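Before going further, learn to read the protein records used in this course. The integers have meaning only within a learned vocabulary of local backbone shapes. To see the layout at work, look at the sequence and tokens printed below.
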Amino acid sequence: MTDLFSIHNKVNIVELTSVDVLTKTDNYNLAFELIRRHQDKYPEIEKWFKTKVVNGIIHNTRSAFIGFDNDKPFATAVVKKGEDSKFCHLYIEDEFRHRNIGDVFFILMSMSIKDYAQRVHFSLPEGLWEEKKNFFNSFGFNKIEKYQTQYRKFEEELSTSVDFSKLWDNILFKIPDLIKQFSPYEDNPLNGIVMSIQPKYSKQILDGKKEIEIRKKFNPKWKNHKMTLYSSSPVKELVGYATIKDVIEDKPEIIWLQYASQLGCTKSEFEDYTKGSKTVFAIVLTDVNRFQNSLSLNYLRDSIHGTFTPPQSYSSVKNTDWKNAISIAELLEGRLSFVSNAY
């Protein structure tokens, strides 16, 4: 089981792994029971899950997700991987259908097929298309036709598809607003900065051994904002967050005298860096969090279809390519919350 979201210890979404299906864990059994409830409308759904979905998870040709609210399952999703990928199944219980969770599942399913898909399609009953057309359109699914296979007993099955590149562009457009809307954190990193830090120093920050970063130029307005740490060459990865607790400007010798033990460098390194500066800025960091999985610059460039470059020192996140990069980090780190707004 891969835990993708854990929000206020209430709502979380997890991905089933091969271990879940091979050992029939509680999460596997709960997902199976939730899916098999649709047997009356989809007579083959139990067989489909036990064969195609289970085998697909084991052989990494399908991904399956289950959502929980206070440990109660309320949603399931399955996606088939390949050049022609398919959103095979998405079910969200009625009471949760107005919390934008559909957006989250579509994004998760799309992320799971990103390395495979050229095109994505899915089938759905005609009534659902009419009810949620605007939601599907917002991801680029605009055209509908009768599906060649009719799964349901009582309603015509339709099909819609979109090029993955168009779907992903729509996701990138959506993610920043979703993060802003759903983030439970006052220090939203989209309102902060991204800072380039040498790998040995970024590691010290993440390990709690370096509490102050020194810069020759810095704007104190970023006090109390979130800083996203970019570990520079040769690492070239987003590695974590920290909050800027304070910004102190003073002469280099005063900064060294007062904060030497928190700088994570030798006196000679400090003097080499600050040489010629009348004053420098001591950026005091707190609430440091290491990413569960660091994000490489190549991954981000590929994900965002951009050629953005890391800042020489630091850069505002707002209205830059870093907005999408850090939005993806927020999503992957499970810092997304759910609120009562209909999609």
About this structure: The chain has a mean pLDDT of 87. The chain is about 35% helix and 30% strand.
